[in-house]
Amino acid sequence: MISDEMATVNSGVSEKVTLALFGVGRIGSVHLKSIARHPRIHLKYLVEEAVDLAKKALNDVGLEHVSIVNFKGVSQVLEDKSVQGVVVCTPTSTHQKVVTQALRAGKAVFCEKPVAHNSEAADECYKVAEECKLPLLCAFHKRFDPTFGAIIKRSRDGEIGQIRYIKTTLRDTMDPSFPGLSTLGGCFLDLALHDVDLACACIGEFPTTVSGDGHAFAKDIEKNKDFDQAIANLKFPSGALATIEMSRFCNYGYDQRLEVFGIGGMLSGSNVHDNHVVAFNNSGTSQPKLQASFPERYLESYYNEMDHFVKVIQGKEKLCISRMDAVAAIKIVEACEKAAKTKTIIDLTW
User: Fold this and answer.
1) Can you tell me the mean pLDDT for 223-239?
2) Backbone angles phi, psi at 224, to 5 degrees
């Protein structure tokens, strides 16, 4: 079962929390917008090698008096006792090093998923967090989406009875020529991780059997021995099944759906459009396009998870994502990817 135990920290801090942001690339710029919007966050440092990029990012969100530091100057940031938390948005391969350095320096850590490049390394990060008695939040932003969050709660509250089947759809709108594609950790780790966590959170169990399959339609992805279209199948101890369907490239918008089917009904969360107008005429009906990508679709979710991090630092909330949740999700997607590449069914033990 998923643990309900959650870490907390009571820092006795003033109303504002002082943070440092590490990295302002694709996801870092998204979290920077949440930081800039939040009334109880003071951003003191932005750690980024590309100084011009950092300056532009700060200017775009209207933040002034933020010190831009390169990675050689990280000690200045970590030794600053006024910094209470660190937000990690660097490449996945660097997460473990940055997370553990920050924890050992006495900082609470918000880490963009995954916490580390594999499940063993992620577990090591959480060991350090527990040793330091500090919170480590794995940023599974879909849990903070109002619709998906409500589905999780209502599923766990038993509204639809025994859960029989869960289906998630994640179709991205990424440009096949995106230069950072090879740094994202692969299709399963990058795409399936959020939805595996969603499925486990809805049912309150971890799967004991997984399988998967996939194909690379883009030649560059095929060269990297990865997939751009894939599927993961999970079977849980209760007998429930889950299907996680993912695609790198979708030409009609950012397609994000969740269905939870139970003996007493179904809960469903569908897509978000640019607006809610539906046109009716003699040609039929039409709707606006789906939102373009994750920064637009999950704008509220990103803010909500940053707000949760602030409240955890201030001792107002407990971490809602446990060590077991974060590590298990990586372990599951690792097994799904292995199953897809070896054409096997893999058993998992917990």
Assistant:
1) 95
2) -85, 5
- Mean pLDDT, rounded, of the chain: 92
Concatenate the DSSP letters of all residues of 224-268 into one string: TT--SEEEEEEE-TTS-EEEEEEESB-TT--EEEEEEEETTEEEE
Looking at residue 184, its pLDDT comes to 58
In angstroms, the CA 313 to CA 102 distance is 14
In whole angstroms, give the CA distance from residue 151 to residue 31: 24
Rounded to two decimals, the pTM is: 0.91
| Nearest alpha-carbon partner for 134 in 113, 114, 100, 109 | 109
The pLDDT, as a whole number, for residue 130 is 98
Sequence-ordered alpha helix ranges (H) in the chain: 26-37, 51-60, 74-78, 95-104, 119-132, 146-156, 187, 193-203, 219-223, 294-297, 299-313, 323-342
Q: 6 pLDDT exceeds 80?
A: no
Residue tagged 């870092």 (tokens):
28
Tell me the residue type at 309.
F
Residue 2 confidence (pLDDT) above 50? no
